[in-house]
Amino acid sequence: MSRFNSESYSKIKGRGAQKNVHNRFFELSHEQRDDFLNYCAIEGEQPDQNKTEYLKVFPKTIVNKVKSPDVGMAYSMNMYQGCEHGCVYCYARNSHEFWGYGAGLDFERKILVKADAPKLLEAFIKRKSWQAHPIVMSGNTDCYQPAEKKLEITRACLEIFLKYKHPASIITKNALILRDLDLLKALAKDHLISVNMSITSLSEDTRRIMEPRTASIKKRFEAVNLLSEHGIPVNVMMAPIIPSINSHEILALAKLASEAGASKFSHSIVRLNGAIGQIFADWLHKSLPDRAEKVLHQIEDCHGGTLSDSRLGTRMRGEGQIAKQINDLGKLARLKYFKHKSMPCLNVDLHESYKDGQLRLF
């Protein structure tokens, strides 16, 4: 039986999610009633302006200790909550509910801005008890999303990392990272920076509907190439791999990543926890109706019959025959195109001498 019964809809341009969903922590919910929509149609008004709001927030801390052992990072920081890139599958959508918003359109249109992030970062890494460990920028939401072009909070944080010779890593899918090439090159001289570039497809048609406000595939590969040429190690992440959407592109994408100079290729299998399952299924039936049920069933096959999977050690890799085929292709891609490549360890030894902002003589 189909999970989607709407016969007609108006696609919201430039967004991944096509609706807002109820915040599970709220007793009350908000919905657009048919009589309101009819009124807007009669009056010639738009029921939804589809505008992005930037809301300043003032957290007391910025660096988070990551307790999950299977995500590949120990500490992370996020300059923004919510992400205008609009990737429909994004695991970070659920976190927007903790801020009082929805995981659907709210996640893409209500961006929480931590303007004090550089000041908070500086205070954190100057603590006497702190021993340098790589801090990942964008552990949750992209630090180079569109707001960064104007606000430059990420750039200011990179300046802090450089000033105190502290190691950092970046996860992004935006070529805007090249704006900060000067800082990245300076950090790379002391092995203090690495970049994880997310590239999920070679198809621009797929990217446009699945990641509507991200940089083009061409620009991302150009960024990988330029970063690598300047000695900045890059890991290309094909994350997530979605059966019957981008699963056929693994080898081809890995080959291009290697040719662009990437030092590593990694992947994960899509999982649709919390509200993301509803958001993704709605998007899938509206954007790719011919294969919607097939894709959903194949995702379920990777996670024990459900779209949601929170099991540590299994949730990223999946299980079952389809997951095995995907993981085997990922392994083959690494053996074929990255056999003699690896990501270097970041330098954690310099920071102690620079904690006061300058090199100690004795």
Brief account:
By secondary structure, the protein is of the alpha/beta class. 33% of the residues lie in helices and 12% in strands.
Question: What key phrases describe this protein's structure?
Answer:
single chain; about 350 residues; alpha/beta; TIM Barrel; 7-stranded mixed β-sheet; 3-stranded mixed β-sheet; about 10% strand; rSAM_sf; metal-binding; iron-sulfur; iron; metal ion binding
Query: How would you state the average pLDDT, rounded?
Result: 90
Basic shape = globular
What is the first-to-last residue Cα distance? 73 Å
> What class would the helix/strand composition place it in?
alpha/beta
Can you name the CATH architecture of the domain at 34-270? Alpha-Beta Barrel
Helical segment count:
12
| Run of helices and strands | HEEEEHEHEHHEHEHHEHEHHH
CATH superfamily of the domain at 34-270: Aldolase class I
Main beta sheet strand tally, sense and closure: 7 strands, mixed
CATH class of the domain at 34-270: Alpha Beta
- Total strands: the figure is 10
CATH topology of the domain at 34-270: the name is TIM Barrel
Polypeptide structure, described:
By secondary structure, the protein is an alpha/beta fold. It has a domain of 237 residues: TIM Barrel, CATH 3.20.20. Helices cover 33% and strands 12% of the residues. It has 12 helices and 10 strands. The strands form 2 sheets. The protein has a 7-stranded mixed β-sheet. Strands 1-5-4 form a 3-stranded mixed β-sheet. Helix 5 packs parallel to helix 6 and helix 9 runs parallel beside helix 12. The N and C termini lie far apart (73 Å). This is PA0069 family radical SAM protein. Keywords: Iron, Iron-sulfur, Metal-binding. GO terms for molecular function: catalytic activity; iron-sulfur cluster binding; metal ion binding.
